[in-house]
Amino acid sequence: MSGDLAIRNVRILGGPTVDLVIRGGRIAAIGVGLAAPGIPALDGKGRLLLPGLVESHTHLDKTLWGLPWRPNSAGPTLKDYIENERRILREVTVPIARRAGGLLEACIARGTLHFRSHIDIDPEFGLAHVEAMLALRERYRDIAEMQFVVFPQTGLLIRPGTAALMEEAIKLGVETVGGLDPAGIDRDPIRHLETVFGLAGKYGRGVDIHLHDREESGVWQIERIADFTAATGLKGKVMVSHAYCLGQVPRARIEALAQRLADLEISLMTSAPADTEIPPATWLREIGVNICCGSDGIRDAWSPFGNGDMLERAMLLAYRLDWSKDEMLAAALATVTDNGARALGLHDYGIAVGHEANLVLVEAETIGDAVVRRPAERTVIARGKVVAKDGKFIDSRL
Amino acid sequence: MSGDLAIRNVRILGGPTVDLVIRGGRIAAIGVGLAAPGIPALDGKGRLLLPGLVESHTHLDKTLWGLPWRPNSAGPTLKDYIENERRILREVTVPIARRAGGLLEACIARGTLHFRSHIDIDPEFGLAHVEAMLALRERYRDIAEMQFVVFPQTGLLIRPGTAALMEEAIKLGVETVGGLDPAGIDRDPIRHLETVFGLAGKYGRGVDIHLHDREESGVWQIERIADFTAATGLKGKVMVSHAYCLGQVPRARIEALAQRLADLEISLMTSAPADTEIPPATWLREIGVNICCGSDGIRDAWSPFGNGDMLERAMLLAYRLDWSKDEMLAAALATVTDNGARALGLHDYGIAVGHEANLVLVEAETIGDAVVRRPAERTVIARGKVVAKDGKFIDSRL
């Protein structure tokens, strides 16, 4: 694949109609009536052009995508969810390559080209998920930009051997060090954070911590995460995922903390759940905290919901927060584009000359229209090559 | 159109594979390997067969469907929303027939065949919306079952002349008497309810009241609605729409009231908003309160959201309430099928011999799969005739 393509007659983020010329997978020119002799042309038909969407938090390795419907059997406590999943994943015989690969192709077909996926490690199955996901990344390397977080799903300190597995995973190529409820699950928050930030410091990596712990407990832990971020010089490289607690305490309680999150460039990830509180994103955004969105688990043992459509995730966030004005619908889109790119430290992101041509053409009138309507009619272009059309991934690699 | 059709190889609500024979628009037989000589046949390909979906609360007359994107300019107070809408509808020149008709066709294309739509009346424009909607109903009478509520959007008592317009609308053929925040908007709750229930009693109609009023104020008004329902003998014919207040007070406060709602068969309608509280449907359902779903306004001056897809509405409710188990995903589907039919007093509803053949074929494995995935691949059959396929309405009447 050459990665040469002229895209005619598109509106970048709803702007005026222009052409793009892509050479060698990168945007070579943006303008009106550009000549592009000898390059295949795609008629954009006046559609909206968006940068490739960003999935900031998912768990591809654990999906049951493509398997027969399985009645959800999880809960009610977080521990029950974890144990239920372990049981189910022991039973499933379809390999990760097929489940995660199928889901990855479905996500790409909806326009996502940049992923952060958490990968379970566990003394029971060791690095099996890591190895499968690293192989998957290789298989789609020319299409999707994937980064991984090593994730101690069953606990870190409470599961001896887990920290060593995390270190192994990082040596194998996993970028980011994960954590999970330092107090609620691991029951020793400071040692948990010392371990996570210690690994990050040793290997020069970022940190991404799942935080479900509630109210004051959760807020206190985010304060400690900020402390560790400052102490280890990891400004701009830390994410707190979920952080329901920030929506569970009065705003006055977190005003100073929110300013620290902005200053330390600690991103917050939400999947926009509607059955629990979420961080007060309208206000946090105003003071400069970076908010991005992720699907979290998609069709897995935790939940039957999800389809990997990041336009739908932006809609769910806007719906959750009553973001109805154009400015706020654009803010919702940003959580699955620019903010995600910022959180994941993506270079080269966005529609600009010199950047990789990772693009989604959407049959929509405006950004707001794209977010609320989430049209199925999309053409996905990865590094100058059309990889999906109308929801269908072209040339499956399963 | 004859309304004769054999549908082969479908799974009713996910049950075993069967055939249906439809004659004269009604289900004549359900069984395995049915003979149906001389009748056109449709291969269901093993898909899920659902009854036509029920939209229990929308505002077709006010939609801006099909118009160019209009940035939302509403709010912040309820009164601001109302005034903003009045201003916009004064400016819009595309007639209701085209806007509401376009939306109606889109809803039908997604499988909705039964509608309750509120219609604004107002001293400013009188019965214009009513007349347009009655004409629209006629135009689609052979496909969609539509019932109307006369809705005093700008207030009843505070807008002199409104009660007389409501009575006129009922005489013209509107079925149900509407109300709106008897305390918060009309500022005289008892006279408001006397007027609404008085009209209902005089003409033998049902009642459907929009209730946005919050917390104790809202709960107190629902108690009064129950009083009026009992006093006027309207058991089974009353709906309270929205009723956020029931999710805003402790459960203990509404235990007796909830039992009265069940006993008086007062239905609750929610659009499953995620930015405010909703009635505690998991518990209310257990004690027998009928909960149904509506889209509320779709792409109108109130909100840019909505697409009329009742499977999506069921998903949003399930997502809102963490209904992930199969039983609860079926409960979510029921809010847009059986519960809606019960709330609207539909006869003939459901997939059974003798009933009208109003059906949706969905490319889904189970009810849960249909709700979480909302496949676009649907075939919609109204009274034995295929009226829509794959999201496209056949033979538009616009």
Automatic annotation (TrEMBL), chains A, B:
Domain named Amidohydrolase: residues: 110-388
Stored CDD domains: Bact_CD
An example Gene Ontology molecular-function term: hydrolase activity, acting on carbon-nitrogen (but not peptide) bonds, in cyclic amidines
The cross-references to InterPro entries, in alphabetical order and at most eight, read: Amidohydro_3, Metal-dep_hydrolase_composite, Metal_Hydrolase, Metallo-hydrolase_Enzymes
What keywords are assigned to this protein?
A: Hydrolase, Metal-binding
Q: Which domain of life is it from?
A: Bacteria
In terms of PANTHER family, this protein maps to: BLL3847 PROTEIN, CYTOSINE DEAMINASE
Q: What is this protein called?
A: Cytosine deaminase
